[in-house]
Write a structure and sequence with these properties.
Blueprint: H1 2-16, E1 30-33, E2 35-39, E3 43-51, E4 59-65, E5 70-77, H2 79-83, E6 87-93, E7 96-102, E8 112-121, E9 128-132, E10 134-140, E11 146-147, E12 151-152, E13 154-159, E14 175-182, E15 185-187, E16 192-199, E17 203-207, E18 211-213, E19 217-222, E20 228-235, E21 240-250, E22 280-284, E23 290-294, H3 295-305, H4 312-322, E24 328-329, H5 331-349, H6 362-372, H7 377-385, H8 393-405, H9 416-424
Parallel strand pairs: 1-12, 2-13, 15-21, 22-24
Antiparallel strand pairs: 1-3, 3-8, 4-7, 4-10, 5-8, 6-7, 9-13, 10-11, 14-16, 16-19, 17-18, 17-20, 20-21, 22-23
Helix pairs in contact: 3-4, 4-5, 5-6, 6-7, 7-8
């Protein structure tokens, strides 16, 4: 009884000094998965920590389930694992991975960062929070005996990928690398070649030549009759840019007529007798106005504008072959009469030679009148410019369109085959 009393006194004394039975409580070691967040398409590093307990732990293992779309990349030992001489390795298992922290020693693992696991958040992963809970946790002491484990879950927060707005590229302005004339000084009616080199443009124009093109590197032959400042304008969907070149023109030796410095030749008019035929056709327009066309006026224009000479006999012959009495006719009849007249003038002016780029004369003028009434796109361009008597690219294109319409090869060269069909074509 005395011994029991002494023990009770001792326990009471310990209680007085604040010592309780918790001094002998067993603390369980634990592995804790941390928290991490990241965007879809990025990689995150998941921390794993270890808390030592009453019993030493020298190696451990646990499984970690991964959500679909979260892919394991790598694992590295943390500070406490490295200090204890341990390696961290991972192996794939169904639905996740298994982490093993162990080494070729019995050194206990202290509390602190145990491992870092790198995970890839692949495209298609839904944004949200995912629990990462360790399972099948196994601890071993330095003697290889099992230690009661404890595993604490972590959390993965996934955010939607943020797509940065794509900045629109800065506008690209057209560039004129060069624009020149050769020669820069010419006699009235002499050909002048304009050359240009343009980039970043959809199309370009040259004024006052009424020239338009989509060819960014090209040339054009013009026939200025007075000093002219040519302006090249290159245009795209954003802006336009211009360049100028001046061609100084002096009068020709024969005192040729003036002009507006246009894109077509205008040689000095040759003297010609005005045709005596004054047959006139009256046209009723859609607005009920009256338009009077004098064949003698047309022939006078042909003879004074085109190169060469139309004699009075030629003019009278062409006029008499198309003259009609004064009467109101349809617009289609007028077009037909003009086409017939142009064929007659052509037959009188042409000496049987072929026509191509660079040709000029009354026959070219008559052919242009015919083509501009043909209704083709290039014929309409001739209508806008007006017949000039010079066989240029627009005339060549109109001839090619007409040739194809009459089942001839669309070469743009007006030779014997074209002349034969032209003579009988209405």
């Amino acid at each position: 009884m005395k011994n029991i009393a002494r023990i009770a006194v001792a326990v009471g004394a310990l209680s007085v000094f604040g010592v309780s039975g918790s001094v002998w409580a067993d603390t369980t070691p634990a592995v804790t998965v941390g928290t991490v967040s990241g965007e879809v398409g990025s990689s995150v590093v998941l921390p794993v920590n270890f808390a030592s307990g009453t019993t030493d732990v020298s190696s451990l293992q646990f499984d970690l389930a991964l959500p679909t779309g979260v892919v394991y990349a790598s694992v590295a030992g943390g500070a406490v694992a490295t200090a204890a001489g341990k390696d961290a390795v991972a192996s794939a298992i169904s639905g996740g991975l298994r982490i093993l922290v162990a080494g070729l020693n019995q050194t206990p693992i202290s509390s602190g960062p145990l491992a870092s696991i790198t995970l890839n958040l692949v495209s298609g992963l839904s944004a949200g929070q995912y629990a990462l809970t360790p399972s099948n946790v196994v601890f071993s002491d330095p003697n290889g005996n099992a230690v009661t484990p404890n595993g604490q879950p972590g959390n993965l927060t996934v955010t939607a990928a943020v797509t940065a707005p794509v900045a629109s590229p800065p506008p690209v302005n057209p560039t004129i690398s060069s624009f020149s004339a050769s020669p820069t000084s010419a006699v009235s009616g002499q050909p002048v070649t304009l050359s240009w080199n343009v980039s970043n443009a959809n199309h370009l124009t040259i004024s006052p030549a009424n020239y338009a093109s989509t060819a960014l590197i090209d040339t054009a032959v013009l026939y200025p009759t007075q000093t002219t400042i040519y302006t090249l304008t290159a245009v795209n969907g954003t802006s336009s840019v211009s360049a100028q070149v001046t061609v100084a023109v002096s009068p020709g030796g024969g005192g040729g007529g003036g002009g507006g410095g246009g894109s077509v030749p205008t040689p000095a008019p040759a003297p010609v007798n005005t045709p005596t035929s004054t047959a006139t056709t009256t046209v009723n327009t859609f607005a009920s106005t009256t338009l009077t066309l004098s064949t003698s006026s047309l022939l006078s224009t042909v003879s004074s504008t085109a190169t060469g000479t139309v004699s009075a006999d030629m003019a009278n012959q062409a006029a008499s072959s198309t003259a009609t009495s004064d009467k109101a006719v349809s617009f289609s009849q007028l077009v037909s009469d003009l086409r017939t007249l142009s064929r007659h003038v052509f037959a009188l002016a042409n000496k049987g030679g072929g026509l191509n780029i660079g040709s000029r004369g009354n026959d070219v003028f008559a052919l242009q009148v015919f083509l501009m009434l043909d209704g083709t796109p290039s014929g309409n361009k001739i209508m806008n410019i007006g017949p000039t008597g010079f066989y240029g690219p627009v005339t060549q294109a109109a001839v090619a369109e007409w040739q194809r319409s009459v089942n001839l090869p669309g070469t743009g060269y007006f030779g014997s085959m074209s002349r034969a069909v032209f003579s009988g074509n209405s």
